[in-house]
What we know:
The chain is of the alpha+beta class and about 300 residues long. It has helices at about 5-15, 20-25, 60-65, 75-80, 115-120, 125-145, 200, 210-225, 235-240, 250-255, 260-270, 280-290; strands at about 20, 25-30, 35, 40-45, 50-55, 90-100, 105-110, 115, 150, 160, 170, 175-180.
Amino acid sequence: MGVFDKLQAILSKQAKGGKVDVNKRFELLKEAISGTMSNFYMARDKQSDEVIGLKIGIREKVEHFESRFVGLKKPAEGEIAIKFSHPNVVKTLEHGRTTENVPYMVMDYVKGLGMHIMINTNNHLLGENRLEMIEQSAMALKYVHDQGYIHRDICPRNFIVSPDGQHVKLIDFGLTLPATADFMQPGNRTGTPKYMSPEVVRRRPTDHRLDIFSFGVTAYHLYALQYPWPGEDMTGKAALAHDTVAPVDIAECCPKINKLLGRLIMKCLEVSPDARPQTMEEVVREIKRSRVTDK
């Protein structure tokens, strides 16, 4: 976008009280994909003529989530995401509110497949790229934690894998919160049920280690193409098993998995946060170590 275009965009937003008419500014190129809190579109920005990712909040979901934090200075998703700059995290270019008074975000458009689609179809690219995908996903989450946030919805749906299977990006921060005491109180049971940690399911106090549990489920799912717990229930009831039913050891499903990596994944699934790896730095370190040893 040139200087004139940027100035025009700023003046246009000021004229509307800082709000953007997305129907006038963007040409939608692909139908919406529904996320946790928003609809995502591939779109053309008419001001810059660039293809971008456009995320528009779903009013009811956003308002319900925000109502949990009345009286707290909770940052919007766009305020959080625009601070991030990491090779494994999608770049947010702009955020604000639409003329319909719902949040929107403009992001780099990332070509590729959702990791969940690759798992569901047992995509051929998984075979030789699983470890690379897991390591890059772990580095993305470590970065989010290092910036002082808890993601709260780590699952394959929130990672995009490049067409060659070599690059992974974390793309969604709709439930992300600051890792501070006010936002770690009991009661915030949000996330994707099959990946929820027991402390979230049981409405206990939480911290960044809830993400480590969800990462463990994601890694298990990527390798085994099934969940750690038996059953087809995908609702919140299924998550109640996460501290009452022992997960199937990944070594039983994937006998050829690196032993160190398998133990790491199972450790992430421990019921008690104290029994899990304590930081994503530790997780990343062990993943890297699994490249050279299984002990």
